[in-house]
Specification:
By secondary structure, this protein is of the alpha/beta class. It has twelve helices and 21 strands. The strands form three sheets. Strands 1, 10, 11, 14, 15, 16, 17, 18, 19, 20 and 21 form an eleven-stranded mixed sheet that branches. Strand 5, helix 7 and strand 6 form a beta-alpha-beta unit. The protein is elongated, with a radius of gyration of 24 Å. About 2% of the residues have low confidence.
């Protein structure tokens, strides 16, 4: 039997994919850069595959358009950027295990230190001076050294030698535009804690995430760490000081069509039953690709510029749509689950569940979904 390579079958090459607009990334970087004084660094947060957008391409674009440093979640993300040739400073903003100290040194990463054990391991692995940042816990109760333990940590680092405290930072806990007072209170705690340790006076300080950068100018300090805003997620919903552009679109080809009568159950458990003669469409994406049921059941997506609903529960690799109101739909039509189609738009913010974060919507998308990078900021191509 003759086997045709799948890459030669156009109908199968891209059944589902992600478009990343690098021009939108560049625009958002410049927008944040416009808010900062010349001495304030823009740190582009590219952790978790750049919130699902593609870490390397986003990092390079951000650095080309005004970011001067990068931040990642762990040593292995930083190492992958170094192996790809990225030379900019890379802050590991998440916890680092003492056993990873050698990797930090090998890849010239800037670790965040919150305990004596890591400081000792880093000093032992480093032959010269290694710059480190201290994370201070001022309200997250997550990673970071407490205010009470900070003086002892600084003393241990200074006595040990080989480590240079190049920065101190904290992480804001607030998530909404109505929490400016919470941001300000946390900033005041941070400033007071740092001021209480003589050797930290004059050391680079950073506290702001996207929300803080937009809402609290006095908190911008020596650097800001912009994550969600880099990708066009706007906590101010358009009412903030800059206009941000969403960078990601999730698309698939319509791979099935069928007509069913009223009273037909759809999907596992038959939780949806048609109330009219219905035309059903099928797309080859499901919760295995990142369409988490709690976020995507009942969602609306775009087909030929019109909104159509997801019906039935999302399956592992397939999702059913009610396309009755788009009678001219054909197999192979593009379905937009996130992004724009014509004048219509589906935003990731629509998929946020109760107590959830818009960042989940893109970050959970399967990393092996093909990503097509578009725009003048980078060559338009398709990469997995």
């Amino acid at each position: 039997m003759l086997r045709i390579p799948i890459e030669q079958a156009p109908a199968l090459r891209e059944p589902a994919w992600i478009d990343v607009d690098l021009d939108a990334i560049a625009h958002n970087v410049r927008a944040f850069r416009s808010l900062l004084t010349p001495g304030c660094a823009l740190v582009a947060v590219v952790k978790s595959n750049a919130y699902g957008h593609g870490m390397l391409r986003v990092a390079r674009t951000a650095l080309q358009h005004g970011a001067t440093e990068l931040a990642v979640a762990n040593v292995y993300e930083g190492a992958s950027l170094r192996e790809a040739g990225v030379q900019a400073p890379i802050l590991v903003a998440g916890p680092v295990a003492p056993t990873e100290a050698g990797l930090v040194v090998q890849h010239a990463l800037v670790p965040s230190v919150a305990g004596v054990e890591l400081a000792q391991a880093l000093a032992a692995a480093q032959r010269r001076y290694l710059p480190v940042h201290l994370e201070i816990d001022t309200g997250m109760s997550r990673h970071g050294v407490s205010a009470q333990a900070l003086p002892a940590l600084v003393d241990a680092i200074e006595r040990r030698g080989r480590l240079s405290i190049a920065g101190v930072f904290t992480h804001f806990a607030a998530t909404g535009v109505g929490e400016v007072d919470t941001l300000r209170d946390q900033l005041h705690r941070f400033d007071a804690v740092v001021a209480g340790v003589r050797s930290l006076r004059g050391v680079k300080r950073h506290a702001c995430n996207t929300l803080g950068t937009l809402l609290l100018p006095e908190a911008r300090g020596d650097a800001v760490r912009v994550g969600g805003g880099l990708y066009g997620f706007d906590p101010c919903l358009g009412s903030g000081p800059v206009a941000l552009r969403p960078a990601l679109a999730l698309k698939a080809r319509l791979c099935g069509l069928r007509d069913v009568p009223a009273g037909t159950p759809v999907g596992y458990g038959g939780t949806f039953v048609t109330s009219r003669p219905t035309r059903l469409g099928l797309v080859p994406l499901g919760y295995g690709d990142g369409l988490v049921r709690e976020l995507w059941n009942g969602a609306q997506v775009l087909l030929r510029g019109r909104r159509v609903p997801v019906v039935g529960v999302v399956s592992m690799n397939q999702t059913v749509l009610d396309v009755t109101d788009v009678p001219d739909a054909l197999l192979g039509d593009e379905v937009v689950l996130l992004g724009a189609q014509g004048s219509a738009m589906v935003r990731a913010e629509e998929r946020v569940g109760v107590g959830g974060s818009v960042y989940e919507v893109t970050t959970l998308l399967r990393s092996s979904l093909p990503r097509r990078y578009l725009g003048s900021s980078g060559r338009s191509d398709l990469r997995s």
